[in-house]
Amino acid sequence: MQxxxxxxxxxxxxxxxxxxxxKADELxxxxxxxxxxxxxxxGKLLLDQLDxxxxxxxxxxxxxxxxxxxxxxxxxxxxxxxxxxxxxxxIKLGSxxxxxxxxxxxxxxxxxxxxxxxxxxxxxxxxxxVDPDNQQTNVVTLKRETIRHE
Length: 150
Description:
Pdz3 Domain, two-stranded antiparallel ribbon
């Protein structure tokens, strides 16, 4: 399958998630007309398989959705995926992540922070976290796992 098909498919999925069905349908039609090799021998679009894979959206991590990560905008927990290691550990929305594996996050980009938090399944990551309610700093060890993120 050509990379162009997959990229267009992902863009169509984003449009659909944003409620822009018209744009998503236009991209779907473009894929069908411009990429005949995206159709398998039975006539069914391979995009159905991509759609199923995209629905799973599997990542390996601890279940934190983060924002920020510079001196003006500290690394902050924006969302927590339910039933994830972070949720099970009781990490709260608005918590500040001040260190990852002993390294200060103030000196990291968001991308670098995410890269350090993610890793192989069943490995551990140690986070320094400031509780948003009582401003207490805690060190939390979380075990990475495969998480379904929609």
